């Protein structure tokens, strides 16, 4: 997303100057893509550095800003090192995976005064922005509670169980990796700060033990070459995945296509939380990673009414006649996946006390993540073009990043201890 933005829509205000990654194969693929996008007739030929040489790269290439898109557990280290080397950072969610890493970032921002942009693209999806507008308008009064359910389907949800995300030490579990988006949305919708979290979670579907208990039998170690199996990802079927991962394996041994029913998974696939906010509002939250459809439902209760947002991102995941997963059910309009019972789309309804339910129109968005990505990139690369402050306050800073992951970090603590965990205990106050 950032490479195509810098070499495309935002090429007049941004320039790629170097790569920093553990894998030369992947740097080569992006270098070729960048050269292509810039019309160079070959690779861009930008210098490549390993992570130990971040500071050398910043000095030698006279870097202004670093965009951090590495695995989650590495974000904080790169943020603090880049800031100490004198540059601003743009960092993907989640900001960090532990309370200690959050404290390091808070200290680093205070010590260096460098900028940190968190790219919370979900905020920019028009449906999520519209819900923020509804709540901020006072239409439902003061928020008192939120009920938030997110379901990931057997394509998107399953994918986390194939990759580095499958281990808590890398991703902090989906409670941090994925739910950081969701917790940020709630913090922003309510304009509130989380205070206490109780969590219950388990690995109940994916993983070797669950597969054995369900009698799944012998499983392939990886999806590539596994044949017809809807749970398998065959990297040779997608030229980009093949180039980025299969062809780059010999550099670091990283497998992108491990079996979702294999050993070594320690993240959860069913998660439930109760979260209290500083204002006194509370949330019940649920995340499932093996749903037959994908999307979310959020309901916000207030002193004057209730707002409900329902989003169906993918209505069904079907298996075609060739045994392969069909992602776009509408490709076969006569097929069983095209049903009026779960149409893809979104519905925002506000109902005030003593009044009828009212549908609120959501403006159309263009591009990834419900139309959020394109607007987010404008904020990352051209925030100075804003005519005035964004009334929705969508651009996120490091404190927003801390407050979003703090819920997941507290949830992990709660799972370990079996009790509710406060933000003070995590040592994140006064930030959270
Ligand atoms: N905002 C969103 O919607 C969104 C979507 C996808 C990914 N992300 C975030 O982007 C990040 C990357 O995710 P991805 O799916 O692209 O993962 P990926 O595995 O495809 O890419 C990670 C890259 O980091 C490199 N890397 C691994 N360890 C490293 C290290 N120690 N130092 C330097 N480089 C290292 C890998 O070689 C790889 O090129 C994650 O933090 C993820 O949360 C955000």
TrEMBL record:
Describe the location of the Gfo/Idh/MocA-like oxidoreductase N-terminal domain by residue ranges: 52-118
Question: Which terms in the Gene Ontology molecular function aspect does this entry carry?
Answer: nucleotide binding
Extract the Gene3D superfamilies matched here. Answer: Dihydrodipicolinate Reductase, domain 2, NAD(P)-binding Rossmann-like Domain
InterPro entries documented for this protein: Gfo/Idh/MocA-like_OxRdtase_C, Gfo/Idh/MocA-like_OxRdtase_N, Gfo/Idh/MocA_Oxidoreductases, NAD(P)-bd_dom_sf
Write down the SUPFAM superfamilies for this protein, in alphabetical order.
Glyceraldehyde-3-phosphate dehydrogenase-like, C-terminal domain (SSF55347), NAD(P)-binding Rossmann-fold domains (SSF51735)
Span of domain Gfo/Idh/MocA-like oxidoreductase C-terminal: 132-421
Task: Please give the start and end residues of each transmembrane region.
Answer: none
Tell me any Pfam family this protein matches: GFO_IDH_MocA_C
Family listed = Belongs to the Gfo/Idh/MocA family.
Give the protein's recorded name: Gfo/Idh/MocA family oxidoreductase
Query: Taxonomic lineage of this organism?
Result: Bacteria, Bacillati, Actinomycetota, Actinomycetes, Propionibacteriales
